[in-house]
């Protein structure tokens, strides 16, 4: 049975260019029809490419396999949605806790404010001239604490 170059390429799992090159090099025999298109006999194609698939066979998954794949993907989607819900609940819980702590630190009579813990000060304090002190001064002296 003769096939077009495209059909033969699909059956042999090769490109059209690969088959055309094989014809030109003499490894594969083919004939041109009245329209100038290459026609290749299936027996000749099977001789050169023994791993070719039989005519009519496709690589498309069966409907049963597609249903199984859809079921697996739905299960993964449900698991991902459950994880997102859990992460949102966790985020909201942490956010509420952070807001409670921020409110207690700002209140003047809060236990945190009464504990004597001072707020962090800028380590790059400005000098008397109004310019910032270089960060390395605290390491090597000159403008650091205890002067």
Describe this structure in words.
Among the domains are: 2-48, Arc Repressor Mutant, subunit A, CATH 1.10.10; 60-114. The model has no long low-confidence stretch (mean pLDDT 79). With 147 residues, the protein is mostly helical. A hairpin with a 5-residue loop joins strand 2 (31-32) and strand 3. The chain has a three-stranded antiparallel beta sheet with strand order 1-3-2. 52% of the residues lie in helices and 6% in strands. Helix 1 (5-12) crosses helix 2 (16-25). The longest helix has 44 residues, at 63-106.
Calculate Rg over CA atoms: 39 Å
What is the count of DSSP helices, taking H or I runs of 4+ residues?
A: 6
Calculate the mean pLDDT score and round it: 79
Kindly state the number of beta strands. 3
Q: Globular, elongated, flat, extended or rod-shaped: what is the shape? A: elongated
Biggest sheet features: 3 strands, antiparallel
Q: Beta-sheet strand percentage?
A: 5-15%
- What level of helicity do the residues show? 40-55%
| End-to-end C-alpha gap | 100 Å
Structural class determined from secondary elements: mainly alpha
Strand order of the largest sheet: 1-3-2
Contiguous low-pLDDT stretches (5 residues minimum) are: none
How do the SSEs run, as a string of H and E? EHHEEHHHH
């Amino acid at each position: 049975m003769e096939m077009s170059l495209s059909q033969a390429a699909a059956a042999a799992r090769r490109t059209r260019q690969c088959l055309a090159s094989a014809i030109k090099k003499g490894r594969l025999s083919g004939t041109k029809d009245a329209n100038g298109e290459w026609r290749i006999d299936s027996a000749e194609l099977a001789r050169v490419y023994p791993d070719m698939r039989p005519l009519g066979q496709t690589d498309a998954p069966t409907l049963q396999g597609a249903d199984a794949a859809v079921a697996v993907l739905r299960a993964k989607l449900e698991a991902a949605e459950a994880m997102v819900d859990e992460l949102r609940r966790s985020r909201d819980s942490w956010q509420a806790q952070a807001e409670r702590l921020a409110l207690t630190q700002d209140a003047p009579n809060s236990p945190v404010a009464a504990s004597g813990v001072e707020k962090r000060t800028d380590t790059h304090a400005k000098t008397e001239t109004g310019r910032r002190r270089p960060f390395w001064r605290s390491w090597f002296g000159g403008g650091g604490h205890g002067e």
